[in-house]
């Protein structure tokens, strides 16, 4: 009896003038494993150099766009082998993120569902980022023993005020309307109109006029104006800034606790709860790299993040990556035992070591080598 043919985890669909890249792992929330990253990188390189391709559409099957990297597989992968196997996953992921951040063809990401972690990394630099009533954005890495990566120290540091610190230190979720308000999304289109928009774009790319201006006009025809709800943290940006401008995580948490005595607002309580349950080392690493990221390029941010990730995966400072994966993804008891367990026990020296490029005692560590992008002047802007 013949074995059933498994569906591809990424579908590459060719239509005249355009290419569709469809994440097709809905039962696993379209989390990105190593093989998916490899295939995405290879195909996108080909598409970029194909003169007949005028537009890349990035979407997903199922109710989730992409819940991030496949950390469960990464955890198992490393447990069965050597920590450097995990680092190789991040090298592949960051190279893909950099390719997309410097892409020379228009990219359209349809974020009709949850987009988190690695899913943000592959979509955030798209020329057009379509959000819907189903969209949920988050960077929750501090809750699982890591810190926001995939270029987060670059794109979150570009948000207004200190809202990037709020997102990265608490894992707070934004809906599609809030993403649009902050520029994380470029257009809000109701989910039921997405397919009609796609058909209009498909028709456009077969014509002689397939400029970005024409693409924008077509997308604008389907887009709706929407308003952020009054109880959103977006409407409290002044209070967010007041709390998250602090020079240390301890100062930020103290500011939130003082604010909680003055106002009864849900986002404040949720921020306090999240920071108290998050990985203390991950919080401090992220605060340092987002502050430095404001003056860095996307290349520099990815390189710094890769070094930090390598230290966590390599257990040079702490076992928190593995403990977080165990508690949140494997055993799912949701009770990680962080070491150190308190913010005040994470020293500046520990954070500095996590971001140092000193792996002299381990020949298996390889530095991040981002792909050469010779002519960056032709990059299509992402409106980030």
Automatic annotation (TrEMBL):
Entry's family note: Belongs to the enoyl-CoA hydratase/isomerase family.
Record domain Enoyl-CoA hydratase/isomerase: where: 19-354
Gene3D superfamilies cross-referenced by the UniProt entry: 2-enoyl-CoA Hydratase, Chain A, domain 1
Keyword Hydrolase attributed: yes
PANTHER family to which the protein is assigned, alphabetical: 3-HYDROXYISOBUTYRYL-COA HYDROLASE, 3-HYDROXYISOBUTYRYL-COA HYDROLASE-RELATED
Keywords from the UniProt entry: Hydrolase
Known function: Hydrolyzes 3-hydroxyisobutyryl-CoA (HIBYL-CoA), a saline catabolite. Has high activity toward isobutyryl-CoA. Could be an isobutyryl-CoA dehydrogenase that functions in valine catabolism.
Protein name: 3-hydroxyisobutyryl-CoA hydrolase
Signal peptide, first to last residue: none
């Amino acid at each position: 009896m013949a074995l059933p043919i498994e569906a591809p985890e990424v579908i590459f669909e060719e239509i005249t003038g355009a290419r569709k890249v469809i994440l097709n792992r809905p039962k696993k929330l379209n989390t990105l494993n190593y093989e998916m990253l490899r295939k995405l990188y290879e195909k996108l390189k080909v598409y970029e150099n194909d003169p007949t391709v005028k537009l890349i559409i990035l979407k997903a099957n199922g109710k989730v766009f992409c819940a991030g990297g496949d950390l469960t597989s990464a955890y198992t992968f490393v447990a069965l082998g050597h920590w450097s196997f995990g680092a190789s996953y991040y090298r592949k992921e960051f190279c893909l993120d950099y390719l997309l951040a410097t892409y020379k063809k228009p990219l359209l990401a349809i974020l009709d569902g949850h987009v988190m972690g690695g899913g943000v990394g592959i979509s955030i630099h798209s020329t057009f980022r379509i959000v819907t009533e189903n969209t949920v954005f988050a960077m929750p890495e501090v809750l699982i023993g890591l810190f926001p990566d995939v270029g987060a120290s670059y794109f979150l540091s570009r948000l207004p005020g200190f809202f990037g610190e709020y997102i990265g230190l608490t894992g707070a979720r934004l809906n599609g309307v809030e993403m649009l308000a902050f520029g994380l999304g470029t257009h809000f289109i109701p989910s039921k109109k997405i397919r009609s928009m796609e058909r209009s774009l498909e028709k456009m790319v077969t014509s002689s006029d397939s400029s970005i201006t024409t693409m924008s006009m077509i997308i604008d025809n389907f887009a709706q104006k929407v308003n952020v709800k009054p109880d959103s943290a977006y409407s409290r940006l002044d209070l967010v800034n007041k709390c998250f401008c602090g020079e240390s995580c301890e100062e930020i948490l103290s500011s939130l606790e003082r604010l909680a005595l003055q106002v009864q607002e849900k986002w404040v309580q949720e921020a306090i709860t999240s920071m108290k349950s998050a990985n203390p080392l991950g919080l401090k690493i992220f605060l340092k790299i987002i502050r430095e990221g404001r003056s860095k390029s996307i290349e520099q941010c990815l390189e710094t993040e890769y070094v930090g990730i390598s230290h966590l995966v390599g257990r040079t400072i702490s076992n928190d990556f593995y403990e977080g994966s165990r508690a949140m993804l494997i055993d799912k008891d949701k009770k990680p035992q962080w070491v150190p367990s308190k913010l005040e026990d994470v020293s500046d020296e520990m954070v500095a070591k996590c971001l140092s490029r000193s792996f002299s005692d381990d020949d298996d560590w390889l530095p991040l080598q981002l792909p050469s992008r010779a002519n960056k002047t032709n990059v299509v802007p992402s409106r980030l």
